[in-house]
């Protein structure tokens, strides 16, 4: 019996291997897709998915067939990212970046239907935009959200666009799927995303990806500023600093 066969023969390890397969995919996946690497009997893999869904570790995607990390799995991931040593170093990176830019800097994680702010360091300016830790913001009209959407495969992007309500938050919000597709193609090419008063009037934002070793987006790094102090051209001038800080954050998580 090989090590792989021995691992898949233990019920508790089977559950962990399923969770690992879903986490590695980074996009909604079916039991059949995950089972390609496990080779379990069809009834077994479906039973494991049902068990994990009932326990809150997995949840069904909008198509009813695929699965994504559930609430309890996301809580575990957030706990790992928020471990004391990692969080101390992460805040140091954000604090330095916020000092260089002079504006509030954020780290956000993609959730099922929105981006969730995991960490932030506020600007010292009295005029600031309040988006506290834990705030959820839409994908389609924020720099962080569009950065995430740009990393989806065509199939998963089409699935998102077919189900999403591209609500207009301001007159500048992109609400047409075709325009959003074009914007995401541009973001994919240049490696950063912007929000030019698309989510909140009077606010601009810039986001870059924080990548895992396999190149998959793990989170986003962004800053936002009121238009009284920043226009989009000025924001774009900080792309090099943002990318450098993003690379530091990636190394920090990998090293942990």
TrEMBL record:
InterPro entries reported for this sequence: GAF-like_dom_sf, HTH_MetabolicPath_Reg, Tscrpt_reg_IclR_C, Tscrpt_reg_IclR_N, WH-like_DNA-bd_sf, WH_DNA-bd_sf
Q: Which UniProt keywords apply?
A: DNA-binding, Transcription, Transcription regulation
The protein's name is: Acetate operon repressor
Q: Which residues form a coiled coil?
A: none
**SMART domains, alphabetized:** HTH_ICLR
The terms under GO molecular function for this entry are:
DNA binding; DNA-binding transcription factor activity
Cite the HTH iclR-type domain residue spans from the record: 9-71
Please report the stretch or stretches of sequence annotated as the IclR-ED domain. Answer: 72-255
Q: Which domain of life is it from?
A: Bacteria
GO biological process annotations for this chain's record? negative regulation of DNA-templated transcription
Which species is listed as the source?
Answer: Jannaschia rubra
């Amino acid at each position: 019996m090989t090590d792989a066969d021995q691992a898949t023969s233990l019920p508790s390890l089977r559950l962990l291997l399923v969770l690992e397969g879903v986490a590695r995919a980074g996009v909604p996946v079916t039991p059949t897709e995950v089972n390609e690497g496990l080779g379990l009997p069809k009834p077994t893999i479906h039973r494991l998915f049902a068990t994990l869904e009932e326990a809150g570790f997995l949840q069904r995607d909008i198509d009813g067939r695929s699965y994504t990390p559930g609430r309890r799995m996301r809580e575990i991931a957030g706990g790992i990212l928020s471990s004391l040593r990692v969080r101390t170093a992460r805040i140091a990176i954000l604090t330095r970046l916020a000092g260089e830019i002079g504006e509030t800097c954020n780290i956000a994680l993609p959730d099922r239907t929105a981006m969730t702010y995991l960490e932030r360091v506020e600007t010292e300016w009295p005029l600031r935009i309040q988006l506290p830790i834990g705030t959820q913001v839409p994908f389609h009209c924020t720099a962080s959200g569009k950065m995430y959407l740009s990393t989806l495969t065509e199939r998963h992007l089409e699935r998102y666009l077919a189900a999403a309500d591209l609500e207009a938050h301001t007159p500048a919000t992109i609400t047409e799927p075709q325009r959003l597709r074009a914007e995401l193609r541009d973001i994919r090419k240049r490696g950063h995303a912007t929000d030019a008063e698309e989510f909140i009037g009077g606010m601009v934002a810039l986001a870059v990806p924080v990548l895992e070793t396999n190149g998959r987006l793990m989170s986003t790094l962004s800053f936002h500023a009121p238009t009284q102090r920043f226009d989009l051209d000025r924001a774009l001038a900080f792309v090099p600093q943002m990318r450098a800080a993003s690379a530091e954050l990636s190394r920090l998580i990998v090293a942990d």
